[in-house]
């Protein structure tokens, strides 16, 4: 049984895009999920410094994610940052503002924004104070609202700072830090490969037989970006001339 978050807020507006981009977003597995060594599993509090506990609840075990793309969702007049688990079994879409989408897209493209954005300010503050972002935690989701923290190493301590997931993800990309979540979040808001396959079948797109999503050969050529009806390419990397700040 799907949760209201998945059925009502994520799957519906993302269905068409997920079907169109399924083979783009899933890639052959690059190893299993990785656990963090800096912090124990479990919720963090801003400013806390932690010592790893002797036992960890399996539901709180950190699972590493990677950012695959930033996709405009025209049906919902928003954007989605698409994260995928390292074992390639679950996709976690997080809806973000246009400014956050632009900030993350610039980082994915390894380009500099023509104007400083919010995440740029935070990056600069952390660096000027002698800190370094070591990991980001997406820890919980309640009523479509995510709880997340940025872990900053400063001197001989590690601090957990509460942040919006979009800002945290942007900072993780800048610092090449790990992005972690847990099974509870993936169960509540993730979309599995099986659910993507089911959507493809329901919409009559490549649903029957053959290779599944993410089964491409590693030597296969790069897949094209998704297209809008009529063949117009959906921009998934920033274009300086069209960015609204």
What is the element layout, followed by pairings?
Blueprint: H1 4-25, E1 63-73, E2 78-85, E3 90-96, H2 98-108, H3 118-128, E4 131-142, E5 145-154, E6 157-162, H4 165-175, E7 178-181, H5 183-189, E8 191-192, H6 193-202
Helix pairs in contact: 1-6, 2-4, 3-4
First CA to last CA: what distance? 40 Å
- Supply the CATH superfamily name: Bifunctional nuclease domain
Q: Which stretches are low in confidence, meaning pLDDT under 50 for 5 or more residues running? A: 1-10, 27-41, 207-237, 240-245
Any idea of the CATH class? Alpha Beta
How many DSSP H or I helices?
Answer: 6
Mean pLDDT: 73
What does the overall shape look like?
globular
* CATH architect. name: Roll
| Helix and strand element order | HEEEHHEEEHEHEH
Would you tell me the structural class of the helices and strands?
A: alpha+beta
Description:
- α1 packs across α6.
- By secondary structure, this protein is of the alpha+beta class.
- It has six helices and eight strands.
- 29% of the residues lie in helices and 24% in strands.
- It has an eight-stranded mixed sheet with strand order 6-5-4-7-1-2-3-8, sandwiched between helices.
- The chain is globular and about 55 Å long.
- It has one domain: Bifunctional nuclease domain, CATH 3.10.690.
- The termini are far apart.
């Amino acid at each position: 049984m799907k949760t209201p978050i998945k059925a009502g807020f994520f799957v519906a507006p993302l269905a068409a895009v997920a079907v169109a981009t399924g083979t783009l977003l899933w890639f052959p597995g690059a190893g299993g999920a990785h656990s963090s060594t800096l912090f124990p599993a479990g919720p963090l509090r801003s400013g806390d410094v932690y010592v790893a506990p002797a036992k960890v609840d399996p539901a709180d075990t950190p699972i590493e994610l990677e950012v695959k793309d930033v996709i405009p969702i025209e049906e919902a007049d928003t954007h989605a940052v698409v994260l995928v688990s390292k074992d390639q079994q679950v996709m976690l879409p997080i809806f973000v503002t246009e400014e956050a989408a632009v900030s993350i897209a610039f980082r994915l493209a390894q380009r500099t924004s023509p104007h400083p954005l919010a995440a740029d300010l935070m990056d600069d503050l952390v660096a000027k104070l002698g800190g370094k972002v070591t990991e980001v935690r997406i820890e919980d989701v309640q009523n479509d609202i995510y709880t997340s923290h940025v872990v900053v190493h400063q001197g001989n301590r590690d601090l957990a700072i509460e942040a919006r997931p979009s800002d945290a993800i942007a900072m993780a990309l800048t610092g090449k830090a790990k992005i972690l979540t847990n099974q509870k979040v993936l169960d509540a808001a993730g979309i599995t490969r099986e659910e993507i396959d089911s959507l493809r079948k329901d919409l009559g797109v490549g649903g029957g037989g053959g290779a599944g999503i993410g089964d491409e050969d590693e030597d296969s050529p790069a897949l094209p970006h998704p297209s809008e009806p009529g063949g117009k390419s959906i921009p998934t990397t920033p274009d300086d001339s069209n960015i609204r700040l």
